[in-house]
Write the structure tokens for this entry.
Amino acid sequence: MTATWTRSAETLLSEADQSWSGIWALTHAAAMGALNMAMTVPLGVGVSISYAAMDFREAQDELEWARPDIRGAGASVPFGALGPDDVPEAREVLDRLAASALNRAAGLAEVETDLGAQAALSRVMARLITGRAKVSGRWA
């Protein structure tokens, strides 16, 4: 599993641009990966990962609200099945995807001149931060 997840994530991380569509692609991959993971891990782990998936999906909603034409802008990331031993590395992959989306959103917020777009990016960043905390277990 982890080789598939890592390879897919590395490809996306290197190809996603610094635009709205790049943020959307990374956020979408994190959401889909979290959903995949939540369905394959024990219930205790799956609940927090499900909440992370919801946070990532809410971030996607904000991006799609601000830029309605963005949906589907990125390529689908093929995450494979997870085994119980793959959970720590899968968490790291999801954290890296969300961190990269967060960094791109912060960079875009610095140069965005439209106040509505800045507000949307602020909401996206808030959801990415909470999603990362739920994936990684680090709240500080």
